[in-house]
Amino acid sequence: MSEKKQCCVVIRINLDCNACCRKVRRIIINMKEVETHMIHKKERQVIVCGRLRPSDVAVKLQKKMKRRVEILEVEDLTTDHGRGEGQEYQQPYEPPHEYSPEPDHMSTPLLC
Predict the structure, then answer these.
(1) What average pLDDT is seen over the chain?
(2) What domain of life is recorded for the organism (predicted)?
(3) Would you say the C-alpha torsion 90, 84, 86, 77 has a positive or negative sign?
């Protein structure tokens, strides 16, 4: 049994009508592991994020909806992002900001 990881899962499921979307939404909301979700009716996609196993979400939707469910993509959101042990996380380079010593005429308030 694999452990639950912080991840986002993109699932394809046939959503014919608004009632199907409401049913999927109700099923997802009742799952304790789910933190956020997004339903795209036109693309027939459901995006679920949280501390979960992607297969658990797919199986639950398949059983409750009685429809074919396809896992399209799984994005791992853990903090290490594939780095080995002992390597520290390094922030991306950002150039230093330069501020002018004189106030900007657009940002100073007008006094009446």
Answers:
(1) 81
(2) Eukaryota
(3) positive
